[in-house]
Amino acid sequence: MDFRVEKDSLGEVKVPSNAYWGAQTQRALENFPISGQKAHPAFVWASAVVKKAACITNRDLALLAIDQAGAIITACDEIIAGGLRDQFMIDIFQAGAGTSHNMNCNEVIANRANEILGHPRGSYRSIHPNDTVNMSQSTNDFIPTAIRIASLKLSYELVFKLEAFHAALNEKGVEFDPVVKSARTHLQDAVPIRLGQEFSGYAQSVLRHIEWIKAAAGELTEIGLGGSAAGTGLNCHPDYRAGVVNNLSKLTGFEIRPARNYFEAMQSMAPFLKLSGALRNFAQDLSRIANDFRLMASGPKTGLAELLLPPRQPGSSIMPGKVNPVIPEMTNMVCFAVFGNDDAILWAAQAGQLDLNVMMPLIAARLPESLTILTNTLDV
After folding, report:
1. Which position among 186, 205, 237, 370 bears the catalytic label?
2. Annotated catalytic, 123?
3. In the CATH scheme, what architecture does the domain 3-135 have?
4. Lower CB density within 10 Å: C or N end of the chain?
5. For residue 300, is the peptide bond before it cis, meaning its omega torsion is within 30 degrees of 0?
6. Which of the following is catalytic: 17, 35, 182, 316?
7. Is 186 a catalytic residue?
8. Where are the domains of the chain?
9. Which CATH architecture has domain 148-226+261-377?
């Protein structure tokens, strides 16, 4: 493999010659060979959107030259469109606060932008990762903003699937309304009930969770971008905060609002925990519904046999003809993973100290994962 030599504050680093990342990303790749898990695609997308919004704002404030801004915007657009994703290879378990991910973004965008301007990779005289791409930003306000934007995007995707799930349960409730069965309490026969009535309960539960998830996601529209390193706005133009919020709103279509308190926006991860808690709450009801489906589909000769689930795959390697409730089983496991992710986010959120929470990379990994696996579960 061919290499180029780049320098950072610690000295020289050999970087693959075809890589768009630079010295600090290379160090992170070597320092953190932990899980093999990389940044969530939505987090990479959101990171590029935030960098683009910052660049547009800096350009409009005459802090960046037109050609510099144009090249950076083009590089960001390529990432937003799904390009250069193989350049974001740092493990999710990385340096605190997400400095490694921020520098990964800065270096990839800088090298691609320089290339657009006709300069070789690793030549930062025109566009520098820190001074140009990261202008008016810090890891400490960039990372929580990128997590917010990624989570908003994924939350809307989940809500769309939840609404379809709610409609499907309602439809089945109508279809099953003539079916009379025994209600069961304590797993013992109780009183007559219509199967459609049970499904109406499932549908109402999902509707309630849609409302709760929407409310929790709405908290994430308040961002602390422009707080810089500790919330003070150090090295930011006085008009930067208002401008970047406006530009981020235009780019995402979300109604982004400036933080009511920029210090709190860096210190507290509570909004992420609120959304994660809403997901956990939905997951426990979804798991309960899946359990009911498994029970009602048990049999076919010695179980309840009240539901006939569509056969999706053979159920046994030794018992011919056996078919298992694989979708509800998978759903249970997804819900258990969401419970675990919520615990991880809780521990990460409470680990903040003084003016910063350095455990944000764990939140950036686990919250988007919970949103994604729940969305995908509702799509099968």
Report:
1. 186
2. no
3. Orthogonal Bundle (1.10)
4. N
5. yes
6. 316
7. yes
8. 3-135, 148-226+261-377
9. Up-down Bundle (1.20)
